[in-house]
Amino acid sequence: MGYTKDDELAINTIRLLAVDATFTANSGHPGAPMGLAPAAHVMFNKFMSFNPSNPHWLNRDRFVLSNGHGCMLQYALLHLFGYKVSIDDLKAFRQVDSITPGHPEILDTPGIEVTTGPLGQGFASAVGLAIAQSHTAAVFNKPGFDLINNHTYTFFGDGCAMEGIASEAASLAGHLQLGNLIMIYDDNHISIDGDTICAFTEDVLKRFEAYGWHTQWVKEGDTDLESIEKAIQAAKDVTDKPSVIKLTTTIGFGSLLQGTGGVHGNALKEDDCKQVKKKFGFNPDESFVVPQKVYDQYHKHADEGAAKEAEWNKLFEKYTDEHKDLGSELKRRLTGELAEGWQKKLPTYKPGDKDVASRKLSEAVLEAIHEVVPELLSGSADLTGSNNTRWKNAVDFQPDTLKSGGKSIGDRAGRYVRYGVREHAMAGVMNGLSAYGTVIPSGGTFLNFVSYAAGSVRLSSLSHHRVIYVATHDSIGLGEDGPTHQPIETLAHFRALPNMMVWRPADGNETSAAYYVALTSKSTPSIFALTRQNLPQLENSTIENAIKGGYVSVEAENADITLVSTGSEVCICIEAIKVLKEKNLTARVVSIPCFEVFDAQSKDYRLKCLPDGIPSMSVEAMSTLGWERYSHEQFGLNRFGASGPYKDVYKKFEFTPDGIAKRAVQTVDFYKGVKPRSPINRAFQQLI
Known about the structure:
This protein is of the alpha/beta class. It has three domains: about 5-305, Thiamin diphosphate (ThDP)-binding fold, Pyr/PP domains (Rossmann fold, 3-Layer(aba) Sandwich); about 340-535, Thiamin diphosphate (ThDP)-binding fold, Pyr/PP domains (Rossmann fold); about 550-670, Rossmann fold (3-Layer(aba) Sandwich). Helix content is about 40%, strand content about 15%. The protein has 25 helices and 22 strands. The strands form six sheets. The protein has a six-stranded parallel beta sheet with strand order 12-9-13-14-16-15, sandwiched between helices. A five-stranded parallel beta sheet has the order 1-2-3-7-6, sandwiched between helices. β10 (about 405) and β11 form a beta hairpin.
């Protein structure tokens, strides 16, 4: 092993870059970087394979900083190893439009693998990265071609350990025996409230041991580089379990406030900056100093990484010669493009075809396309039979060692993930799966329980991950399970998310359209809100119409009102046309299965759907919030639902042809003599 003064110099350089950047910004968290610098030095310089000249090399080792508030640690490392993060970028830490924001962002900084910030998110995403590696290796590695063998390394702190999502993800990782996952737990006993004695006194290693992890403890994390190295090597040697290393460190090591909450989330004072620099052998009057020896040491390792990639590229070239189909398939996946002609497999329907619940229509899509979209990894949070997310011949992603009745329950090449009752971790894991670059994840739960996963779903949007959330039991139409399961506010919440496509299809063609747009949108996640109850196949519904996000479902000349709706209420609106006709009123119906996609259409197209001069009324059996963008009046459900057979629940709240017609008459009467401007016509567009 043999560590020298040069290693100490590198470690102290990392610490002081964090001190200077947070001091200059007068913002940030210097404590964790100062405590974790020794472990980071050993991990990056001794173990990790990466090429700063190509941050996207497939077989690089991944690093995730789950305690993302300590991001100056990562930015310092990226700079020192030669990624495109300059010293000026470090000086611009936490400033507007810099590439060194206050928490790691995958879209901002080269070398960042996943966006972290809310504690525990990075932990779950790291599990996703490890699953993706394991699955991709099982699909593509062949004898003599160990193409995919990278590890995922993660730092996490007490805050991550306290968050429920980390517990969910750790439990799943232990079950899946992810031997390619190595996590270092920064045991510094400090959170925002101060010493963790006030709220967090459990034995973390015993918890992880119970999850099925390999556990170790390095007691002198500030100085014992040899023990850190031995522990990481031992973790790499364990291939049938994920590994966690409890690393006891001193937060803010070297500071006058070391070991206290005062150095957690505040920049050091000027006198402290000077004394710590002097203590570490640096000029106290200089800032952002990097000795050439440090650059030389780290650039040497970066050059070794570039050489490893060059060697890997030669191996891949040979692989594509011997395994042409697999080589072409892997190359295609890395572009993010789907196989040519895949969309021809999407099911289509015509009026008069059998009534089918949209959750079953979703299953029909998966059954039809899974062979032509082999990168699709489906799954469910213990609701497979309800979400209909598993095609008939699907194989579960499982360790080969797990058996039931003497038979293996799956293998690493399997494409169906049993997430268990872990909605939040499922969503966080899918972000990691997407970030890996070789798979497209899809996972199911009830729409109401997507709210359990909201933190991770938000990061899907923020990070531009191509993730699909199959959210069934989408309304009061689920019936007997009642208000606890019936979503009311959920769609309004997720429709408000920037860069999120929320689809609520009304029939089979709209469901196929939802899949088409979701799978072809490389940088936007999707939520599919799907029914339990059967829906008819509608007139004028086609994939071509629905991929515009909205279209005229029933047109009528000289109409008195436009009924605009989604999902299971569209067919009720169409039935309401007959009731209104008996009242000498003419109605037209517009279906808007996806607000985000509809809003991206031209204004002329949207005005054809929702023209000037005619009042519009929205109909959706949930919160009316947000519908004012498309309607003058809103009929919805701004209270919780009720338990009972779904048809009776719909009657109770008057989501019936008569109930819709009654409110349509009131709307027409209110706007009599007025030619209202379309809600589409506004002073300026909200889209940025």
